[in-house]
Here is the input.
Amino acid sequence: MIKRGLPPILDENTEIMILGSLPSDESIRKQQYYGNPGNDFWRLVGNAIGESLHGMAYEKRLETLKCNRIGLWDVFKAGNRAGSQDSKIGDEEINDFSGLKEVVPKLRLICFNGRKAGEYETLLRGMGYETKVLPSSSGANRRFSKNRESEWEAVFRH
Here is the structure.
């Protein structure tokens, strides 16, 4: 089944962009990045920036990210995937990143949320951006929670 991603959450002040792979089925249904409550994204980013994002309404979360100069997008514009696991993504269509420098001129760091998104790190590094592959915020990745939290926090204290 073909799944389509969400529009980017970026503006001219964005300095750090977090790229996921492709939204989960629940995120697509809600039309919200990291809309699955089983994903730890909002807790990890909130801890890293000193804000309690987890309990906020979605629009307030996005506003808080923008105030912290953080943007969101995904590596894939679309892909064929049964369910929500990154490992099941096939026939992926990559988003067009060629216009980033015009849309987000202050962008300095691109973080990849997990290994699947991180497979495209060299593409964006080749465009002149500093990059970092972070451990996945997926709830399935909680067994590494201490290291995961410290890696996410280090990026935003950069």
